[in-house]
What does this fold into?
Amino acid sequence: MSDSRKTMLNFAVKLTNTPKSLEITDIKKLRSAEFSDRDILDIVEVTAYYAYANRLADGLGVAIEDWLSDD
It folds into this structure.
């Protein structure tokens, strides 16, 4: 896995798990990994959308599909 992808994924995990801990240095790390402001917007939007969709499904009691592993 490329270093830029690791940087992106680390940011997404931090945004998901501890959003209040994000700092401008986290954005600077993405920029240093050559992500544009548009790329950063996309990363934040996709991460936020999946958090929303998962919480919506959990809150409504949507069952996990049989073909998905619960690991």
About this structure: The chain is about 70% helix and 0% strand.
